[in-house]
Amino acid sequence: MHERGIDVLLLTTEADIRWFTGFLTAFWQSPTRPWYLLVPAGGKPVAVIPSIGEPCMRRTWIDDVRVWPSPAPLDDGVTLLVDGLVEFAGHAARIGVPMGCGTHLRMPLSDHSRLQAALAGFTWIDAMPLLSALRAIKSPAEIDKIRHVCAAAGRAFAQVPELLRPGMSDVEAFRAFRIACLQAGVDQVDYLVGAAGEGGYGDIISPPSGRALTTGDVLILDTGCSYDGHFCDFDRNWAIGQVDTAVEDAYRIAWQATEAGLAAARPGATCGDLFEAMQAVMAPHAVSSSGDVGRLGHGLGTQLTEPPSIVSGERTELAPGMVMTLEPGYAFAPGRWMVHEENIVITADGCELLSVRAPGTLPRIG
After folding, report:
1. Does residue 167 share a domain with residue 199?
2. What is the pLDDT of residues 74-117, one digit of tens each?
3. Which listed residue, of 98, 138, 183, 299, carries a Cα 20 to 30 Å from 69's Cα?
């Protein structure tokens, strides 16, 4: 913070507050109340939160918990927040707030305007580079949590051929898989998307539609389960009965692209290097850019997706302790994609798979 000219961090989002405090609650699903954490340049963080969260926050390592009865439309914690910022940094402080791509400010815009008016002499600095660097390198305890949830989701994926059958609706399929994940040991199935389509799929982020799984379909399930606030994020593909050889070829190519990513993932390599390694395998077989999913992987941790992104030209260097997804995908036919995803941790001399490696040939259901 000193090197970046930041006197105090103001954090408002679930992932940032949880990372610094361990505060874990599903109450974030309610948009009614704002939550704040102040991280001064010296000393422990200070929570400025609604009183309903005080017992839970006091079970963390945070000692200084300042509360107000929320919701309070006339002053929903703004005065308490201003007093804390002035106390820790004076009347001309430099406040660090995440501002870059992938961040948001979780407080009412009207309250943010009031905050800025009350702190007219303060300077606002983008804290995203600092926070991204802090959170990118996972501790052994964090890696163990991610390893646990990857293993649990992997056990659920292994059950899919026995859980699903042709004729079952995709709604039933998603429900059965969610139950399997919970029974396998995850805390939450926070994210589950996928698709099934004849000869392939053209959409990988939609909820189930009620369509029946039919012979000739390709099914993808992509899940981000969590355990103690830490995520996995990987997918698996299956053929429903017999499929065209072009589908099997596409699966093999995406699998080989993942292999290229695994081989390139080592300390000192850049995210751009990973992109180029995987893209080089897929590009000769892609029919168009219509299957471009935007990136071929990303960071992973207390959020389902974290910086950095695996995109062309990204110069972020990999370092031991970084947890990443490798997610090669391409359009192998018009409107038909094939996407693979694995989770890895960068080690001293390469990488370690946290998810159990997908089979090298397209598995079948029915």
Report:
1. yes
2. 999 999 999 999 999 888 889 999 999 889 999 999 999 999 99
3. 98
* Number of Cβ atoms within 10 Å of the Cβ of 151: 17
Question: How confident is the model at residue 289, as a pLDDT?
Answer: 55
Residues 78, 112 within the same domain? yes
Place of tokens 């009350």: 118
pLDDT tens-digit series, residues 22-61: 999 999 999 999 999 999 999 999 999 999 999 999 999 9
Specify the CATH number for the domain of residue 262.
3.90.230.10
Total domain count, the chain: 2
On whether both 163 and 310 belong to a single domain, the answer is yes
Is the per-residue pLDDT at 290 higher than 50?
A: no
125 and 169 inside one domain: no
**What is the span of the domain harbouring residue 101?**
8-135
108 and 146 together in one domain: no
pLDDT at 192: 97
- What average pLDDT does this structure show over 247-263? 98
- 76 contacts: CB under 8 Å, gap ≥ 6: 33, 34, 68, 70, 108, 111
Distance (Å, whole) CA 335 – CA 200: 8
Per-residue pLDDT tens digits for 162-200: 999 999 999 999 999 999 999 999 999 999 999 999 999
Q: Do 232 and 339 belong together in one domain?
A: yes
**Same domain (yes/no): 72, 17:** yes
2 in a structural domain: no
